[in-house]
Request: fold
Amino acid sequence: MTTLKQWVLAAILIISGASVFTGCTDSNSDNPVDEKFLSEKIIGKWIVADLNGVPAPTNQKTVLSFVSPTKVIGVMADCYGTAWNEDLSADVSIEGNKVTFVSSKDAEGRDHLVCMTVNSIDDKDMLMAYDWRIFVDGELIFQDVTQDRWERITEDYETDILGMWEGKRSNDESEFDDGKVHRWAFRADGTYTFYDKVDGEWKATDDVMNDYILDGTLLCTRWKTKDAGAEENREWWEIESVKNGVMKWKALRLRDDGTTYTANYELVKVK
Reply:
């Protein structure tokens, strides 16, 4: 199912406008984050790290890029829904330690307001209270508040990932992987080809879909086989590093019983 955080971000970005219908809760005057400092520090790319004090599963992660104190952009994709590669932007206002996204009415006539109360921010982390409200005709019908930690992304692997890579998982558990060595050929148009080794030779699979999105370090993939009735699969990874022809992926996965495990992949560049 779609996660709350992804639902919120999709809503505020898709229907971004300039209609102010209510305000955020007053800032805490004792908060050390002032407006000028926040306006400077928030510029850059951020990824969700923790939700309510718990590490966020990778499939629930989202990246936002603050290109200025008044504009945020994102490539919206939902691991559990239908959104894919939607370039979205929203106007932002900063007042004190409040970062506010204001929307016009959505398709159902509802107004959305999202306020990020930034409690601390530095070169690596941003801690905030996330307040999302929905209004109908000025009446509050829904409110959800979470405590989030976001991490700054300084790496960009958009070019590094291109080409042919060979590897396999380096741990015992993975949702889709069979534990064998495979190959991926990533192209600049956002598509890739997946290869199996059959009788000693590499053969491209005949999938009807192989797409990826890479935003900073977050790698989003989706694929669908040609089998009749086959469902589209999606899986998110975080790229840990690309060094000396070796690329490492990691992902925090959520089991059906609510426990988690870390999946790892290591790939070598094929020349």
